[in-house]
């Protein structure tokens, strides 16, 4: 039993605890890349592993071969793969992107094929064929053909318009231009013509068309700056650098054309941050990694020209591999509607079968003995009953509404245009309107349970603003709110500074005055440190200072120092030049101690013009305070300021310095140089040396940066939460950064109890073990699944990293042990045991995932950080699968595409550089705040309108069709129709379609402002209260009752009737006109009762439809049309003759009154005794409207309490350009030799290295 338990262990106990700082592996990583070698390994396993190592490496990593400037190389037989049957195609994808479905040749057949896959359309096609058989039809063929052609035509036109838009988008991308080597020179070519192995040239601000190996650039050492906004939404620059050998030899066009290197690398995969390969050129091999690869979708910045070799193209690029599969999305109502249509099919068959049996019985009892009914055909009663079964299938076909689907499509199309035209969702700064990119999901917007949001670029602007600071214990940047004018006073004036960028808004002019006076040197020292201690690069090629920072935080701090008079002007490998209040000074940079996620700080050691050596340091308060001098006088006051900054959710860091003597520096520098050239564990050695010098620091103060949220984010999240929508944030950022944003946008508050991955892993493991104990070996049992993880009540949040997510969800890959492969066949018992073990593992995994989803859904909010694009999609899929909830994903980068495609509804934030998320989304707009209007207004209205439309549509069709059923009892079950053929044809097309379409498009129970003011109205859609099987059967019952009234009241009135002229109007045709007139008036007035929002258009449609019916009926019953088409129009004179009788009008009025009065009475009682929340709001809408005119949105009063989470700056900061600066690779000067740098200390350093 123990051994079995061990085999089912939930967690890998040998492995170390997941690292919160690391983004976990992606799908394509091999097990060997993921796991560490075990400390103790069996000898035989070790021998086997060593023998197969080389062969295994070649087999795994070098399957993809790319030859530069040689297209024929990639067409060789070994690179071909079988596509269809014997047709072969190169495994190297072309660079053209294809998202369209049709072309001019395939449109008609493919579109018809897709439409006839829909059950209702196929049913009506079969019905049309049956109507051409004279023996079974009593209804003309055109009654089905005309509506069917209308449905197919409208749907085809809509599909064509959508596909033309896809063609245009594809053409726009595929026809972008770039320079490609052809015939030994660069020529302009389109993206779609680029192939793997091509050498291309890109200019500044150009998008990268494929995944390319950087060969050279116009920058020193072939550096290339790229912006990855289209990949991850981040606008800060990242750098790539080519190999030294390609930088030296591949700068000229002739050399690039002659380049014939061979790249052997990994197969195409979705790992954005990893690449493994080798360049073979001139008989030598050079290692390649991700720093030398430019990915498709990146944008070239601050680099005039760069050259690259195409490695992956088109669908093989990493950005496309992260896009995931395009899923066919359908709404919950669509699925329910299909099941209801199937229910109607079954009812139709049962009713037709019952009536056919009735006809068989009638023929046996009456038909055979009535000589006047003989039709000259000697059919048996059972055969006549069989024919009548198909006859009733035709007659009652309108129970299955053919126009239902096309009406739904028209309503959705109109609702999509309303979203597109909504000016309150238009974002003027980027000229970005809201866009419904699909027309099939609108009502699902009113049923959302969970929202999954990206952080960077979605909740935040990815813009950092310098807001406050504390210098020598005094805080600057206080805001003063004018209570009369509502304006912020004391705005700092930077007009005196010629270098000010004009973008900084700082609310404290007093600090400017102190800087100008210069009486407090600590203040100037503070901003001097910000201008000096960083790894920012400056570009002034266009006459202006443009800073290139490794993170937005660092750029914000250097820009703040610039505005306050301390301007970073330029740097070389060993110097930095700063303008200090107009005086330009140059300082020697002796060392840059760069940031990393463990150190959480960076330092710069400089030699000042007077010869003094000083260390400047900035970093997280948690690490800086440990290294301060024990008697530092500013500790307490600065800590209080940090607490205040933290309560306002600002990102903070501490600034400090230290004077160093020449002797201390020389001794430290020897250790630093030795660590710099260490061959093993260099990073650890450097960190140790850095630690020695960063001690006994003197605190200058602290900065407070605002990670700017998009406008209205907290308010939007608050409104959506009140609508019972849970919001999960899925981001690749570090845990502390994500947590800080959680507080900023009010997902997290002081009252929130936060659980982390390490907290819940024990809970989940205990729950899984308990489930196993209760159910034996069946780990998938539902016993105990309903138990809550937490006590009811309370505000809880879960923050979990990608590494913990893999650990908890049992997604962590295990290393396969390479055992000695013996050729002995396994026994049947061994195979069954292995299969059982796999089955148990799968059940464990499924149960663990279900438990995790249950636990997470008990939390008010969830933040997943350091997650890969695939993990984002996995989290969405888990909630879809185990909660059966409607999900929405919103993001702005390519790393969000998979999540957007996986969710029921995907929303893209447009207007930024990145457009990948928008292209894959169902809806797009410019700001996150528009999401509340999309859901609470458009989504809710769309859901209510669609539900009302469907309920009414089923009602009017049952009321119309079942009159035939009642009529059958009086015509010998002969499949005779109760109406004229043309009335049957036009009923759903003209007489009853317009009012219900307009309600589906325009109706609203409350206004848009009240919908947003009362988010709880949204809960109706989440609970499916307005359209379900109960509502369907109520509509069915309502239709049955209406059909009874429509048939039997005229029938009773016609039993003994005499007209004014002494003639009896009780013939079949007059009865058909009376019943039809009663039906049209009743169903249109019923629509009027169901209308909540009356406009002239609604009123016109109802009375216009009735008038249209009478007008067309009189025309079709005229003698003139009968003369032209005698066989098609046989009701000559019926309407004029029947409708001039007052008795018939009284019959019609009575029928309509009996249909509608009970409905009116029931509605009155319901609204009086059991009013819904919507009814209550409608009743008080005038009061609410008056309140809105005087009500103003109050500013958010949220203030976060004292917390230890104030160090978000240092945690989020990326590793800077220190290595490039120190090495001189980023500077246009040539790098000095090692001897020149170390001088006489070189031999000493070597000896120290050997001794270590």
Automatic annotation (TrEMBL):
Chain residues that bind Mg(2+): 454, 456, 892, 896
Active-site residues (renumbered): 454 (4-aspartylphosphate intermediate)
Domain spans labelled P-type ATPase C-terminal: 918-1172
Coiled coil: 828-858
GO biological process: phospholipid translocation
Topology with respect to the bilayer: Multi-pass membrane protein
Keyword Magnesium attached: yes
Classification via SUPFAM superfamilies: Calcium ATPase, transduction domain A, Calcium ATPase, transmembrane domain M, HAD-like, Metal cation-transporting ATPase, ATP-binding domain N
Pfam families: Cation_ATPase, PhoLip_ATPase_C, PhoLip_ATPase_N
Biased composition range(s): Acidic residues: 9-35
Record keywords: ATP-binding, Cell membrane, Cell projection, Coiled coil, Endoplasmic reticulum, Golgi apparatus, Magnesium, Membrane, Metal-binding, Nucleotide-binding, Translocase, Transmembrane, Transmembrane helix
Group of enzyme by EC: translocase
Every P-type ATPase N-terminal domain range: 75-145
Region (Disordered): 1-44
UniProt: ATP binding residues: 454-456, 554, 595, 618, 651, 731-733, 866, 872, 895-896
Listed GO MF terms: ATP binding; ATP hydrolysis activity; flippase activity; magnesium ion binding; phospholipid transporter activity
Cofactor(s) recorded in Swiss-Prot or TrEMBL: Mg(2+)
InterPro entries with a match to the protein in the record: ATPase_P-typ_cyto_dom_N, ATPase_P-typ_P_site, ATPase_P-typ_TM_dom_sf, ATPase_P-typ_transduc_dom_A_sf, HAD-like_sf, HAD_sf, P-type_ATPase_IV, P-type_ATPase_N
A GO cellular-component term linked to this record: cell projection
Localization: Apical cell membrane; Cell membrane; Cell projection; Endoplasmic reticulum
Membrane-traversing stretches: 142-161, 339-362, 389-408, 949-970, 982-1002, 1032-1053, 1068-1085, 1092-1112, 1143-1166
E.C. designation(s): 7.6.2.1
Primary residence: membrane
Family: Belongs to the cation transport ATPase (P-type) (TC 3.A.3) family. Type IV subfamily.
UniProt subunit comment: Component of a P4-ATPase flippase complex which consists of a catalytic alpha subunit ATP8B1 and an accessory beta subunit TMEM30A. The flippase ATP8B1:TMEM30A complex can form an intermediate phosphoenzyme in vitro. Also interacts with beta subunit TMEM30B.
Name assigned to this protein: Phospholipid-transporting ATPase
UniProt source species: Anolis carolinensis (Green anole)
Gene: ATP8B1
